[in-house]
Amino acid sequence: MVEIVGARELAKTYRLGNSEVQALRGVTLEVAGGEFVAFMGPSGSGKSTLLHLLGGLDRPSSGEVILDGQAISHLSDDDLTRLRRDKTGFVFQFFNLIPTLTVAENVGLPFLVAGRDPRSAENAAEIAAVLEWLELTGKERHRPDELSGGEQQRVALARALVMRPAVVFADEPTGNLDFTSGTEVLEHLFRSCVQREQTIVLVTHDAKAAAYADRVFFVQDGRILEEIVLGRREEHGAKPLIDRLAQLGL
Amino acid sequence: MRSLSSIAWRSLASRRLRSLLTAAGIALGVAVVFAALATDRGVDESIERAARDQVGRADLRVVAFEEGGLSAATLAAVRASEGVAVASPVVEHVTFAQVPDRPDLGLLVVTGIDPELDVQVHDYRLTAGVFLGRDTAESVLLPDEWARERGIGVGTEVTFPGAGGEATLRVIGLLAASGPARAHDGQVAFVLLGTARSLFALGDASSRIDLRLTDGTTVETAEQALEQSLRYEPYLLERTSDVAAAMRASAADFRSTTLLLAAIALFVGGFLIYNTLSMSVAERIHEIGLLRAAGATSGQITGLFLLEALLLGILGCAAGLLGGVGLAQAMATWVRSTGSVPLDALPIPPAGAVLAVGLGLFVTVAAALRPARRAAGITPIEALRSRSPQRSGFDPRLRWLIAIDVVVAIVGITLWPIATGGDQPAGGLARPYVVFALLVAVAIASPLFLGPLGRIAGLPFGALFRVEARLARGTLVRDRGRATLTLGALMVGLAMIVAIGTLAQGARRAGLAWLESVVPGDLVVRAVAPVPLDFADDLAAVDGVARVTPLRPFDIDMEGRGVDAVAIEPGAYDEAGALDFIAGDRGAALGALERGGAIVVPESEATRLGLAMGTRVRVRTGAGESELEVAGIVARSFPGRAGEAVFVGWRDARDLFGLRDATLFAVRTSAGAAPATVRAAMADVAGLYAMQVFTVEQVAAALDDQLGRIFGLFDALALAALVVATLGIVNTLTMNVYERVREIGILRATGMTRRGVWRMVVVEAGILGLAGAVLGIVAGVAIGVTTLLLSRTAAFQPPLDLPWPVIGAALVLGVATAMLAAYYPARVAAGTTIVRAVRHQ
Ligand SMILES: Nc1ncnc2c1ncn2[C@@H]1O[C@H](COP(=O)(O)OP(=O)(O)O)[C@@H](O)[C@H]1O
Ligand SMILES: [Mg+2]
Fold first, then answer.
1. Residue B146 contacts residue B127 (beta carbons within 8 Å)
2. Pairing mode, if any, of strands B60-64 and B208-213?
3. Domain map of chain A by residue range?
4. Prediction pTM value
5. Which CATH code is given to the segment(s) A3-248?
6. CB B467 to CB A98 under 8 A?
7. Does ligand 1 come within 6 angstroms of the Cβ of A96?
8. Are B492 and B440 in contact, with CB atoms under 8 Å apart?
9. What is the CA radius of gyration of chain A?
10. Which domains does chain B have, with CATH numbers?
11. Span A47-88, pLDDT tens digits
């Protein structure tokens, strides 16, 4: 197994005036290339904090993050930005899109930011392919506010996938969607893992969403309380996870 | 209401930067308005004072036409004329004063007065000694300053060369620099009428008679009565009011331009407030919803926002008034240094302060009204559901702003004369309206161009920063209303700079063309008071002088109207190839002037008086009346007191109008002699008569400098408007950044560096600046050209070419100020941490 994302004794403390909030209290884990992992847990347990640290969006108070074989604590802000640009993709719960850009332009944003022309033949083909793959063909020239919530999240996923990054991080991508749209987005995430061999790190408080993962980390009070290995989704539904959680009294 | 005011106050305090910028914008607008009012008032009072100095309490003045002056018979007739209460005869004679123990001679206009009569029409103020009386035949009064500079005090003896030898008079009093002591640039001495007459062998003649009328007599009836009774020798009647009117006319353009620019600074301030409060409403939609849900009425919400605006307005007005006093002082110093607009004291007009503050508060509250009403219209449901601030259309905003500006323009322009205490020249009103109309037209049209304009403006940036430019361009069309307002403010400021540049260039070109066309030579010798014509021979004897041409401005009575005239030597003009003939053949016309019985008129006067080639006009002369024929029409002439001067040949000037002296000499140097060298060689000769010698280049440079200073002041005022606009850009961009924290987070997560984010905001500002500059330049050129066209009828023929350097400067200024304004917001944007941004809802 090749480690693509890892955490070693990761801790994060937020300072709020005189008091401190310990959002993470020592997390160690490894995610292998091509794996689909999920962080699950109640609100405020530290899931988003962990995802932000793993994705290089923020720096830990102590501990180390490994991203694509590199320890990131020594990287400068610009180097970290470059690493993020080349190796990661993100999907958040709300407002993933730039409202003034079209769907195609939003998906092409990683090329633009990397100084590559999104309209070059090669990149345009890549954008068209990912849009087709996410069933968004025909929506290229739409503006984000002309799309449904599910479509918007699929565009966000397309942008996260277009450069074929090593890892896609998704923080509650379905949190704002109805059941059907949410399921669609999760199916697409799962398919990209299987068909494109994409590593996926998902944060959710919903067991049905977490059940798409190969492994689920249950997070509570800034610690990993339990690691639940489910195996590939094809072989199971949400039931084993729900049963296991019940068994643990969670 | 108490709780509301605490909410309003806290909301301003929590957005300290924005509140300060907005208050600063209002302050600047109010300061400029106040300073303009104070300066305007100062100019008005100075004109009044100068006019009073010249004519005192006299209502009318009878001025001699010929060297011989007005006879005793005329004086008697004037005294006997109906409605005349006081008639004070005066003689004036230019001579030199010999000061003991000092080698240099001082030129003085010796003025003989009847002390008992003259104090009834003029105010003399003594700083030392005593005034003239019955037994002071050997005494003289001198201006304090002139005397002090020459070490003269009460008791000093001063010698004058008289007709029958030298006369020595004793200084018995010194005069303060006011009233008649300021005549002839303060180079004046007062003696008894009899002393002056005998000293210069003037018999019983008077140079002029100053009149005061009895109560209830109008100037018109007195004039009619005088015209009936005066038939001994030619004379001119001058009305006191004409003197002030002529001075006022010369300052009218200056005053109406300061008025306009001040109004524009406020106009831009209105943009700023409107934009700030609109943003504030958009930003606080949730807060408003909560207040509404908690039971606040829509009236209370309106009140809350109006209160916020009022607090900003009061803060701004107070600061503006303080700053305005300083600005007024600076402006006055500057205006004085131009030397072309009279301003000797700077009053702090209470009415001006009230108007400035009133307009400031009015603009503030009026601009706040719509955002406040919009806030009041937000329902709790709408507020709590909406995630991002809603876009609002630009049409209602613009309509509202235009309504405000039209009201401000009307109120401001109408109240202006009341606040300055002077009367507004009619021509001064049309121009501000036209300019306002043009600005409003461009502002209305600008949203239509926003898309293409943004794309074009994005091109130069896109070549360098593709990502940033692409992302930034979107912002321009995201909220067209906000972009239009921000752009509009910048556009207005730049438009004024370009318009001023267009005008300045027009004025400069016209001035230089005028100088070339009208002065037949390369040196100009100027006297304080007329000197005998044969002085020309002394000048001609100087090495390197080819020809000397005496010039003499004077007044003539043409068809019952006072017209400025100048006596010239037609031959010299022919030789120098001067004067641009519009009608008539130059040779024939100048020949006719040489022979006499003809005049050459400038186009402006031809239009004003309805003269054409061959028109015969009746003029009043020494012998009674004469007819002169219009032999040619020229583009430009010398500036006179009311209009441009009509050219008269020396033969007529001598024979018909009795002129035997000149105040100006144009000197043409011989080939090979440098004007500057000849000027130096001439110094001694000219010094004898205390005359000043200038090269034409020096006159041109002085003219250029004078125009530069006046237009520089206008530029400074326009820059104030631009600064206000810049504050608006800082506000808008900062707001844009706060609103787009989420987006910035996404971009950063996608791999944009901090510097990339910084560049994006700066490029956004650059595009905004470039778009604003393009609009501003279009509007500015339109305003400048229209104004030039409007003023073309006057003695002013400016060419209508574009001031490219100014246009270039406006372009750079627009882009640079906008990008500079982006510095702070860009730092905020670049400093946003990703996590905070992506957590932000
Ligand atoms: N910027 C911050 N400042 C202070 N406390 C924070 C900040 N961000 C998160 N927290 C706290 O850290 C804890 C973990 O938050 P988060 O990672 O968002 O949890 P989750 O995503 O599981 O809901 C919470 O108690 C939260 O209040
Ligand atoms: Mg979370």
1. no
2. antiparallel
3. 3-248
4. 0.72
5. 3.40.50.300
6. no
7. no
8. no
9. 18
10. 1-59+248-428 (no CATH), 89-206 (2.40.40), 447-512+704-841 (no CATH), 513-702 (no CATH)
11. 999 999 999 988 999 999 999 989 998 898 889 988 998 999
